[in-house]
Amino acid sequence: MDEERGALVRARLTKAERKLAAARADLEASRFDEAVSRAYYAMFHAVRAALAARGVQAKTHSGLAALFAEQLVRTGEIDAELGRWLGQARRNREIGDYDDFLAIDPEEAVEAVSRASMFLEELRAWLARSGYAAASE
Question: What is the dihedral of CA 18, 42, 125, 65, to 10 degrees?
Answer without folding.
Answer: -150
